[in-house]
Amino acid sequence: MQEQNLSNNLATIGRRFVAFVIDNIITSTLFYIIFYDELSYSTDVISNVIFLQEHIWVFIVIKVIYHTFFVATNGATMGKYLMKIKVVNEESGELLSWSMAFVRAVVRTVGEMFFYFTFIFAFVDSKRQTLQDKLAHSVVINA
User: Fold this and answer.
1) Model pTM?
2) Residue 77 in 3-state DSSP?
3) What is the CB neighbour count within 10 angstroms for residue 87?
4) Per-residue pLDDT tens for 53-109?
5) How do 138-142 and 85-89 pair as beta strands?
6) Helix or strand holding residue 1 (H, E)
7) Contact indicator for 67, 104 with CB cutoff of 8 Å
8) Label partner for 116 (CA 20 to 30 A): which of 17, 30, 59, 134?
9) Among residues 94, 133, 126, which one has the least CA distance to residue 7?
10) Which residues span the domain enclosing 42?
């Protein structure tokens, strides 16, 4: 019965997209704050691109920590919170465990690096689950 209630309360793709944009702005801002000194001295686009290539792992770590922490502790990143949606276990409706939140964050971040491939699943799945949702046994619902 719980699974049926969750299916009736699924977040729309539009709300999820806006939350995605907000979260990317936040994580990008965190990256910029961390490397403000180095980036503020950059005078051209080429040196910025080289800098980003050299520090991409820092950005990946920021994204994984951000998504793991907020999904495991609140069920929602800042973007999801503002859009009034949250990530829950697809069977119990409870928050994800730290390990499942981590799996979801890693797959999500890898999916972004490969043309957002993992996100395409949401457009064809009846529960609007991305690949990261499927692997973490989660759904995104209205809060």
Assistant:
1) 0.92
2) coil
3) 27
4) 999 999 999 999 999 999 999 999 999 999 999 999 999 999 999 999 999 999 999
5) antiparallel
6) none
7) yes
8) 30
9) 126
10) 2-142
What letters, b where the CB count within 10 A reaches 16 and e where it falls short, cover 22-38?
bbeebbeebbeeebeee
What are the start-end ranges of the E strands in the chain? 85-89, 138-142
CA–CA dist 87, 75 (Å, integer): 5
Q: What are the pLDDT digits (tens) for 49-67?
A: 999 999 999 999 999 999 9
At 76, give phi and psi (nearest 5°): -150, 135
The neighbouring-strand residues paired with 88 are 139
Q: What is the pLDDT of residue 4?
A: 61
Number of domains in the chain: 1
Dist. CA 61–CA 58, nearest whole Å: 5
